Amino acid sequence: MSNPLWSPSQQQIEQSQIHQFMQRVNQQHKQKLDSYSALHQWSVNNPETFWNEIWDQCGVIGQKGSGPYLLNANKMPGAQWFPEAKLNFAENLLKYRDERTAIVFRNETDHRVELSYSELYTRVAQFAAGLKQRGVTQGDVVAGFMPNLADTLIAMLATTSMGAIWTSCSPDFGIQGVMDRFGQVKPKVLFTIPAYLYNGKTVDCVEKVTQIAERLESTEQIVFVPYLGNDADISEISKACWLEEFIDPDAKEVSFTPVSFDAPLYVMYSSGTTGTPKCIVHSVGGTLIQHLKEHQLHTDIQRDDCLFYYTTCGWMMWNWLVSGLACGCTVLLFDGSPFAPSPKVLWDIAEEEKVSVFGTSAKYIAALEKAGTKPRESHKLEPLRAVLSTGSPLAHESFEYVYRDIKEDLLLASISGGTDILSCFALGNPILPVHTGELQCRGLGMDVAIYNDQGEEIREQKGELICRTPFPSMPIYFWDDANGEKYQSAYFAQFDNIWAHGDYGELTAHEGVIIHGRSDAVLNPGGVRIGTAEIYRQVEKVSQVQESICIGQPWKDDTRVVLFVVLKEGFTLDESLKTEIKQTIRANTTPRHVPSVIIQVADIPRTISGKIVELAVRKVVLGESVTNKDALANPEALSLFENLPELQG
């Protein structure tokens, strides 16, 4: 077994909320749990009792009911959690109303906004009054075509305070991308901005919003938030007004509408790279209780913390981040490029705002290392105690980089779950060590295993990541999926009554998890299944390579591995570099991992949330059409993969 990169001290273990929760379970239920592994097993063996304890431990505000707290416990989908409960999502995020800092907003410039919990509550009251005056009621949809601003979060809280449904995407989406999403769910009110800032440039949105307004017939009011000024001309948009005209400045109280545990809260969207995005509906109670568990027990967030996650409003990590308000901590919001004006911008902000939990993507950490950034040498990061990473598997080298060049004494938590569950299957743990390349543990209450193709559980082997029993943050339904057919086929087509997540993973000897890539992107040369992350991990080691993407191409009755690389400026792919890449892959994996063809490209297509799209590239290489290019941040990059002579038979 490898030595851990980091281990918590005994004092850190005993002071953690997850340790205290384990003692609570031992006392209340006459258990003798003495390890995380034992606690996890107890949590999945006793789901009703476990989630009831989470409700109490994490201080959910609402009426729980007298029980039972789980019906149809063996049905997926079909289980019902807390069937008698009544609660309100926004009320739980606004349980604190004191003068402590609730929100800090920063962007690429020196612009800064700070709101206390009492100021946040009052601002939500003003927004909610405006929504009520426009006829928004329980079950209506309100949308945000917004950057990650304080007002975006306030609009969400105002919406959910009245039992309405919130949905959002970031303003870098194209018009068709917005219509593919909001066009399905038909929002009554749309919040937006006249312009936003990215990479030092101001991007105008008025023309885009004008076209969206013409096509969103359901939308009765479009509210412009005056980010970067309110001098834009919105007079041509018949339904438009400025925010200050919309809100009620005299409103002081929020009237929270109690709803059922499984009432709809958020509509989230699948990436939409292979067709129109699926509209995934998540519940009030399931989202809240799952986020409370992950924040308080798995991330140990307390009132003194400053929680940051680099995200847009089009990525589920925004929803995860803002739930931090329920812990009473400071939530730090950032809008802009993480490399403008320089690669250290987020670390400047982390130092100034005393960030204790810093969340980002695996891609950002790899790019930071490639840029030669060493925050440990340039910044004072004493409060920083955890770095979270998701979006794609975190390479071994990135684990080592964080401990070498960011901070030696911190918890590095690679986390994995997704939009489908609005939370994590595997994530961090303040009472466990960190091992290179591994997610520390499976989440409490999440009955996660790895199955082979025959549906048999395997360990220390690669297979399908599945969940065997229901959990509260399963989607309640898909929009416009009356008979549940889309829902069933998305998660339960592979194994009956078992959630198949679409990740290709492995359970390790430490009870940790390794994610080897998406199942649908798994390569199959010579009948051997290879996760793309295994190849990327090795290519990352080659200093001349900026990033890469690989696919399987049908070839002579088999599949061959094709690797595309973007090189750093000034480098060209010659035979010696191809040899270096192949030797690096071969030395650390197997001969089957070695690509048959390596091709240099200028760019790699990715979703708006930054994920590379292997399936779309494969379609282009095979001469098939990519139907939904609006889901991509840079759809023009697809043309780089068309009709390549190196790939012709």
Notes on the protein architecture:
The protein is an alpha/beta fold and 649 residues long. The protein has 20 helices and 32 strands. Helix 6 crosses helix 7, helix 8 runs parallel beside helix 9 (206-215) and helix 14 crosses helix 16 (396-406). It is globular, with a radius of gyration of 24 Å. The two termini are 45 Å apart.
Short description:
The protein is of the alpha/beta class and 649 residues long. The two termini are 45 Å apart.
- Choose one word for the global shape: globular
What separation lies between the terminal Cα atoms?
45 Å
For the biggest sheet, the summary is:
7 strands, mixed
Q: Which percent range fits the helix content?
A: 25-40%
Low-confidence stretches: none
The average pLDDT score comes to: 94
Physical arrangement of strands within the biggest beta sheet: 6-5-18-17-19-20-21
